[in-house]
Structures are given as structure tokens and as C-alpha cells.
Specification:
There is one protein chain. This protein has no helices and eight strands. By secondary structure, the chain is mainly beta. About 20% of the residues are buried.
């Protein structure tokens, strides 16, 4: 794959009580899927995080792009606070 895909959120810590649901900025190929560990409500296509539905804690979010033969992943760690 020639396009290296990366993503980022506006912060690394988000508050359930005061922040709006964050959505990432993607650079490179935009046809990947987002995933993470259990406890976070994450839209797998857009990367939008539903803060109110997520459990307070630390999460590693992974963005995976595949062309059918090869896959690339990019990771971003976030914290959801009360």
C-alpha cells in the first residue's frame, strides 16, 4: 500500500460531562475501520466516540486500512474521564 493512513483526535483526554463527542481527523486513505477494546462506544466507520455511552478509562483506538492484500494500522490512545 502506498498511502500511509493516520488519524488523530483533538485531545487525548475527553470528559463525559463537558466535552462533545469527538471525531477524528484522518490523513491518507479514508476507507478504513476503527476498533478498540471493550468499554468504549466507537463508530467503526467514522471513529466518532459516544462519550456518554462509554465507560471511564483508557483506550487504544486502532484504524485499519486494507486493500485486500495488505493492511496498515495506526493507533491513538485516549482517556475518557467523568
Amino acid at each position: 500500500m502506498s498511502d500511509i493512513s493516520e488519524f488523530s483526535y483533538s485531545n487525548s483526554t475527553f470528559s463525559k460531562s463537558t466535552d462533545i463527542n469527538p471525531i477524528p481527523t484522518i490523513t491518507g486513505a479514508c476507507s478504513g475501520l476503527f476498533s478498540s477494546n471493550t468499554g468504549i462506544f466507537l463508530n467503526e466507520e467514522s471513529g466518532l466516540i459516544d462519550l456518554m455511552s462509554s465507560i471511564v478509562g483508557d483506550y487504544v483506538i486502532t484504524y485499519t486500512v486494507s486493500d485486500g492484500l495488505n493492511s496498515e494500522t495506526s493507533n491513538h490512545t485516549i482517556t475518557i474521564s467523568p
